[in-house]
């Protein structure tokens, strides 16, 4: 097997007690001390996450927008500078298109020559095949695709105090720009003395920002965030807390809720599919799925106990198998176990009593609206 890839922060994680695991071919910290403590710190104050394993791609050139418009499920032609959108990347296999990944696409400030600059953030597990697929569809001229994953680091600061912690590392002008940044908006700023791409995005259900800097600046930025944030309750967090946070927030994860053969509408991802008047790989297939509205749908399950269901556990309604769990865990914010599952539509109504088979034991659950947890939105 090839050696595991490492982020620019790998040595810091090891030196500070990170329990390192293989995640999608990367050596990543799953926790530092306690998943529950890291989870609750993010909900109450702030958490800082190394997300440098995520793929970061740059698309530039005069034809960049029209090229991505023809390939992504979300409309790109009308994306303004400083905006980010959630999208899917689908294959062009006519008989049976598949979902290659989900991604964020954003438009940065135009280049000095006026050419557009766009960025894609993709999942670590799918980066290589997405890059290969995109490169195989590059036009002869007008578009440049660059994989910047290994030349940069990416740090997510999440939680109710996250934005103020990051702003404390900026000059007055940059700090005010970040404070005013809306959700799914992006900008540039100098953070702790380092030029950074800043986006008001995240994967925890909390407010916060994601920072992309040069790889050789990642450790200094991480340590600056910790120095300013630790007195205010910020803690470093691993993949374990990242997963429980996104589960409470009802966010689908590729390989779990979202899979190659998924129907995006059934998962609640209609927002990621701009179908009207557009042509992208598999568009007709996904339009037909949306019209059909058949098959199983994604639901939340809430348990009375702390015993967690796991991916693949069967979901039962009396003596009938009606689905399977896609993600499950104890939810620290709620104090009980929760799960997401794909279930038959006639068993998907809120309040429907079901059971999950956990290690041969049937545990009662009730269908609950998603998300399980939703933060109080900021005003203004």
Give the helix/strand layout.
Layout lengths: L4 E2 L3 H6 L3 E5 L2 E6 L3 H10 L1 E5 L4 E6 L3 H6 L14 E7 L8 E10 L8 E6 L4 H9 L8 E4 L4 E7 L3 H6 L4 H8 L6 E6 L2 E6 L8 E7 L3 H12 L4 E4 L1 H10 L15 H4 L15 H10 L4 E7 L10 E4 L2 E12 L4 E8 L9 E6 L2 E8 L12
Parallel strand pairs: 1-3, 4-14
Antiparallel strand pairs: 2-3, 4-10, 5-8, 5-9, 6-7, 7-8, 10-13, 11-12, 12-13, 15-18, 15-20, 16-17, 16-19, 17-18, 19-20
Helix pairs in contact: 2-8
Give a verbal description of the structure.
Among the domains are: 5-54 and 150-248, Gyrase A, domain 2 (2-Layer Sandwich); 295-380, Elongation Factor Tu (Ef-tu), domain 3 (Beta Barrel), CATH 2.40.30.110. It is 21% helix and 33% strand. The protein contains ten helices and 20 strands. It has helices spanning 10-15, 35-44, 64-69, 127-135, 162-167, 172-179, 218-229, 239-248, 264-267, 283-292, and strands spanning 5-6, 19-23, 26-31, 46-50, 55-60, 84-90, 99-108, 117-122, 144-147, 152-158, 186-191, 194-199, 208-214, 234-237, 297-303, 314-317, 320-331, 336-343, 353-358, 361-368. A six-stranded mixed β-sheet has the order 11-12-13-10-4-14. The longest helix is centred in the middle third of the chain and has 12 residues, at 218-229. The chain is globular and about 65 Å long. The model has no long low-confidence stretch (mean pLDDT 96).
